[in-house]
Amino acid sequence: MTVSTRPSPLHLLLAFASGGLLTLMVDFNGLVALHGNALYSSWVAHGTGTVAAILFLALMRQRPFPAKGGAAPGTPLWAYLGGVSGAVTVMLTSTTVNSPLALSGTLALGLGGQVVFSLAADRWGLLGLPRRMPKPRDFAAVGLIFAGSMIIIFGRS
After folding, report:
1. Which residue has the higher pLDDT, 60 or 62?
2. Residue 102 pLDDT > 60, yes or no?
3. Which of 110, 111, 108 is nearest to 155 (CA)?
4. In degrees rounded to 5, what are phi and psi of residue 39?
5. Can you give the pLDDT at residue 65?
6. What's the rounded Cα separation, in Å, for the pair 29 and 36?
7. What is the pLDDT of residues 106-122, one digit of tens each?
8. Contacts of 25 (CB under 8 A, 6+ apart)
9. What is the pTM assigned to this prediction?
10. pLDDT of 65-83, one tens digit each?
11. How far apart are CA 85 and CA 93, in angstroms?
């Protein structure tokens, strides 16, 4: 069986849609933080997500926890730390979206940070990923993302 190295149109559409949902999430979390604070925004986001996940699991008739009470088979324990990075991300974006960066600047710089970290993760095989050496076009993409971010942030006047 051969695996295609090109994403399907469905994968591209799903990734694009997740970017739109991420934008809504950051905006909603920023609004909650504006009326409370960043920590409260993170609690609201994760509390709502927990309730939604439990409801979805109930509708799908799935058990919320693995049968033996431990981690799912084959899942490294550090994978469960994703919730910590999610909580910190909500607090950071809730703070910056209410700053002069606004929503577009926050998301533009966030995208740059994601690409830089993903290149590092590919390069050194972090988090169990296969090692892949970045190519010059990858660094060009990072440069263009940061240049676009600067235009978004400083080109408002």
Report:
1. 60
2. yes
3. 108
4. -65, -45
5. 60
6. 10
7. 999 999 999 999 999 99
8. 45
9. 0.80
10. 665 655 667 778 788 788 8
11. 12
The one-character DSSP state at 64 is S
How far from each other are the two terminal CA atoms of the chain, in whole angstroms?
Answer: 54
pLDDT, mean over the chain: 89
Tokens of 85: 């990075």
List the one residue out of 116, 142, 6, 127 whose CA is nearest residue 78. Answer: 127
Longest dimension (CA), the chain: 59
Indicate the residue type of 128: G
The two three-digit tokens of residue 43, written as one number = 């609690």
H or E stretch covering 31: helix 9-35
CB 128 within 8 Å of CB 75? no
Task: With beta carbons less than 8 A apart as the criterion, state whether 156 and 112 touch.
Answer: no
